[in-house]
Design a protein that fits this description.
Layout lengths: L10 E3 L12 H6 L5 E4 H6 L3 H6 L3 H5 L6 E4 L2 H7 L6 E4 L4 E4 L6 E4 L1 H11 L3 E3 L11 H24 L8 E6 L5 H12 L5 E4 L12 H9 L6 E4 L5 H10 L3 E3 L2 H8 L1 E3 L7 E3 L19 H5 L2 H9 L3 H24 L1
Parallel strand pairs: 1-11, 2-3, 7-8, 8-9, 9-10, 10-11
Antiparallel strand pairs: 4-5, 5-6, 12-13
Helix pairs in contact: 6-7, 7-8, 8-9, 11-14, 13-14
The protein binds one RNA strand through helix 5, helix 11 and helix 14.
Pfam family, one: TGT
Organism: candidate division WS6 bacterium GW2011_GWF2_39_15
GO molecular function: tRNA-guanosine(34) queuine transglycosylase activity
Length: about 350
RNA sequence: GCAAGGGUGGUGGAGUGGUCAAACACAUCAGACUGUAAAUCUGACGCCUUCGGGCUUCACAGGUUCAAAUCCUGUCCCUUGCA
């Protein structure tokens, strides 16, 4: 496996949150041109568990994914998002998060240290320090608390990473910049994190405002206040246009669930469309014999018409979702390829 | 032929005197989804509307009533049981 330095070129990483890009085999994923993927610490902690994955040879081996890097997200976002769901109970304090899974009723804790420990056991190449993620629209006081906690946790995560020998093993570790939409807090958080020895800086929190617009000002501040030569990861970004915009600012690492989730829900991407979007379930595609994208040679476009994909997605056929996912991922990889050529 | 039960919007199916343009589901037509709680969710779905409302509907035709999808009479269909 010949890997280029992570984040040197623009990369889009699909989310294989639970150790699988939904509806795709690793081989199908490979055919989309994907190299790097993201997995999630919290989800893999719950099932099948870090010890199990370690015992089975690590996540690369487990998924049989050797095309590129694997990045593990810390679980910070899940702590935030799962606690918003009615089914999950839990609390976050200075030390970390504790919560109860509604499925098995088991109680899990995630601290800066345990998150790193789990990620080490997973055997990913790039780790993320646990952060304190909050809602998009929050009071300044809450944003301050989130920043302070994130800084403290970053320090602890980094120390634990060193202690467990992550650096020696050639792994990379990144941190998350919080601060909501307060530019000075974003700046402060970025500057403080820059004093620590991280390999990458991630833009965290909500990346779009209430109108669905990318928070470019905040993202710019973070770029301006973090060290050059270290990768910049726009977590959860985004729509094709958002990636183009964020890449202009200097972000090179991206992941989003949109690409795969939209595929399942019937929003496909196509360079034939001005806004890159094609809602395949719409009645107008019921007898459209053209491929989803005339310039794409993915399995769906090479072999099937829009009409056929339209039908498959409408009836909820899993194979249709697979084809749509393959197509959308291929689109994103082609988009990134275009951006790297510029 | 007799007996019993039925006929409700694109479909299935609630409703059995007013709160009914009619539950709910499906289908249909749109939309959303941004470090995956998501093969999910939201809206529209008789007709018209200046979005306040207005109008026409529950097999068909009459009738009772202030008021009927709901009660009564007749007609036409359907299902089941008995001949």
């Amino acid at each position: 496996m010949t890997k280029e330095k992570f984040g040197e070129k623009i990369t889009f990483m699909p989310d294989a949150t639970r150790g699988a890009v939904r509806f795709l085999t690793s081989n199908q994923l490979k055919e989309t041109g994907t190299k790097n993927v993201v997995v999630n610490t919290l989800h893999l902690l719950i099932s099948p568990g870090p010890d199990k994955i370690e015992e089975l040879g690590g996540i690369h081996e487990f998924m049989n994914w050797h095309e590129g890097y694997m990045l593990s997200d810390s679980g910070g976002f899940q702590v935030f998002s799962l606690l918003h769901s009615k089914e999950w109970e839990g609390k976050i304090d200075r030390d970390g998060a504790t919560f109860k899974s509604p499925r098995e009723g088991k109680i899990y804790t995630l601290t800066p240290e345990s998150s790193i420990e789990i990620q080490m056991k997973l055997g990913t190449d790039i780790l993320v320090a646990l952060d304190d993620c909050r809602d998009a629209q929050i009071e300044r006081k809450e944003a301050e608390e989130s920043v302070h906690r994130t800084l403290e946790w970053a320090q602890r995560a980094l120390a634990h990473f060193e202690k467990l020998g992550g650096r020696k093993q050639g792994k990379l570790i990144s941190c998350v910049v919080q601060g909501a939409n307060y530019l000075d807090l974003r700046e402060y958080c970025a500057k403080e994190l820059s004093k620590m020895n991280f390999d990458g800086y991630n833009f965290g929190g909500y990346v779009v405002n209430d109108k669905g617009k990318l928070v470019l000002e905040e993202m710019k501040v973070v770029i301006q206040n973090t060290p050059k030569g270290k990768f910049k990861y726009a977590m959860g970004v985004g729509k094709p246009q958002d990636i183009i915009e964020a890449a202009k600012l200097g972000y090179t690492v991206f992941d989003t669930v949109l690409v795969t989730r939209n595929a399942r829900h019937g929003t496909l991407y196509s360079f034939d469309k001005e806004d890159y979007m094609l809602r395949i379930k719409n009645a107008r595609y019921s007898s459209d014999l053209a491929p989803i994208d005339s310039s794409c040679d993915c399995e769906a476009c090479k072999n099937h018409s829009r009409a056929y994909i339209h039908h498959m997605i409408r009836i909820g056929e899993a194979t249709g979702m697979t084809l749509a996912t393959i197509h959308n991922l291929m689109f994103y990889q082609r988009l990134v390829e275009k951006l790297n050529r510029v």
